[in-house]
């Protein structure tokens, strides 16, 4: 996306005070409903790149934590990894959208994700009054992994075997926001590059989270000219069969419903290019993205 200035994101006119009051009142039942619940947020896309969007996201996350919601962030950082690799003279190769990760590349992944990317997010949340702490899957044995099925081609790309939730729970109980870099390990001391979406899903299931929220560059599931507010498993299967849901959205949708089957109550896809989309999705009746539910007769409120 083109770089946005902060002035580009400000409304031309201020909302009437009565409208602001109505929004706050609308948010109240959701604040009460979600107090002490856990939200896992997968943070990626343009929301990680544009300064104003990064600040907006950090404000949103801080507010969620301040009203009593346990927030766990899982972040990507593919572009940053590629740029760091280039500076070191290491070529990035992808197979079916997955990064081929040899020993040189896993060092770049570890250095970039656990280093600058992770700490930049922690610092930004701190600047907005939140208390965040950087975590990798190596800390306190948080993410144990095994080689992926395509290891012969992809190298040190892992699939998650277990999540040790004890450390994450401890941080949440202390009022902190864990910011997790998706790096795993095995019993032989190998370090693995983990897909951030998969890591977020596994962590949400292990934590028995109320919500898993994907902050991405799409507004949700689009059918024709409209964004679906809610979609159930049967509808998703029909849309995939009809070719309405296609391409890279298919694995994200299938993963979302597997996560629901694992016990997470709601999955949301929201557009990180929209300012305050996180708060609008959670604290308003209409929302701004698409939520996944198990069955159509489930409660469709956010």
UniProtKB/TrEMBL annotation:
What GO CC terms are in its UniProt record? Answer: cytoplasm
- Which UniProt keyword terms apply here? Amino-acid biosynthesis, Arginine biosynthesis, ATP-binding, Cytoplasm, Kinase, Nucleotide-binding, Transferase
Q: What is its main location?
A: cytoplasm
What's an example of a GO molecular-function annotation for this chain?
acetylglutamate kinase activity
Listed under catalytic activity are: N-acetyl-L-glutamate + ATP = N-acetyl-L-glutamyl 5-phosphate + ADP
Which residue range or ranges hold the Aspartate/glutamate/uridylate kinase domain? 37-271
Signal sequence segment: none
List the residue(s) that the UniProt entry marks as the site Transition state stabilizer: 42, 252
Q: What is its EC number?
A: 2.7.2.8
UniProt keyword Oxidoreductase, yes or no:
no
Please give the pathway this protein is involved in.
Amino-acid biosynthesis; L-arginine biosynthesis; N(2)-acetyl-L-ornithine from L-glutamate: step 2/4
Superkingdom, taxonomy of origin: Bacteria
Binding sites annotated in the UniProt record for substrate: 77-78, 99, 193
- A GO BP annotation: L-arginine biosynthetic process via ornithine
Q: Does the keyword Transferase apply?
A: yes
- InterPro entries attached here? AceGlu_kinase-like_sf (IPR036393), AcgluKinase_fam (IPR004662), ArgB (IPR037528), Asp/Glu/Uridylate_kinase (IPR001048), NAGK-C (IPR041727)
EC primary class: transferase
**Subcellular location(s) per record:** Cytoplasm
Q: Which family does it belong to?
A: Belongs to the acetylglutamate kinase family. ArgB subfamily.
Q: Which PANTHER family match?
A: N-ACETYLGLUTAMATE SYNTHASE, N-ACETYLGLUTAMATE SYNTHASE, MITOCHONDRIAL
- Its biological function? Catalyzes the ATP-dependent phosphorylation of N-acetyl-L-glutamate.
Under what name is this protein listed?
Acetylglutamate kinase
Q: What gene name is given for the protein in this entry?
A: argB
